Amino acid sequence: MRIVSLLPAATEICFTLGAGDDVVGVTFECDHPAAARTRPIVSTTTLPPGLTPAEIDAVVRERAAAGEDLYTLDAGALRHLAPDVVITQDLCAVCALDTTDVTEALTYLGCTARVVTTNPQTLPDILTSIEQVAHAIGRDSTPVVADLRERLDQVRANRSGRRVGVVEWVEPLFGAGHWVPEMVAVAGGVNVVGVVGGRSGVVGWEELAGAEVVVVAPCGFGLEAAAEQALGVVERVPVGAEVWAVDANSYFARPGPRVVDGIELLAEILGGGTPDAAKARRVR
User: Is residue 135 in some structural domain?
Assistant: First the structure.
């Protein structure tokens, strides 16, 4: 089995299922586990480096309006790798190549690889996508999914009831949607922005007025960048609110197994614990 993964979460899923050796191509963002970095890169971004969050937002909106791509696919590399399965997504055109682009490229190349499209919108969808990928690559997802469900059940026993706002972008302010509101609920909090299964979207700062905990989890960024961006959030939210920066890429933004780690991280924050300093940092 030769697998090309065009989504960091799918790469993580494949490795978790024990199919890491079968993964022959990845995207420039596939960085977990570390072995994923050794695979040939077949997809990269067209965004220039070094942009601020506000500049990224402006460029993305401009290119979307013009119908321009945010990602490129290395057709030559894809042809050379001769995959049996290509895993892509149909969730967000800003996050990765979508199914249409991939299918058209494979048709052009005359490649007969099976295209597997994941589209998780909620926490149960993420578990289903693990099962979907496992079926496509001939692996058994039962022990992996069972372990994740058991961990979720353990976290659900903790109910802090604290009001939580998770910020997915800071300029402009985006409230996190999709599975993130569920992450808050399972961790024992009360979500104040974003809708379960709904798209993340622009919100007003007033929507965070009632939050007791504000979590800055900017999509596409790790902990250090999140902590830097959180400094601007501190100035805009209630004085009494805790403000936390988290490693969004690892534990919030990617719909893979480590979302459960993110829920456990949230539960620790809401319960007044001391989270792993490599995963989260209290800014105020």
Answer: no
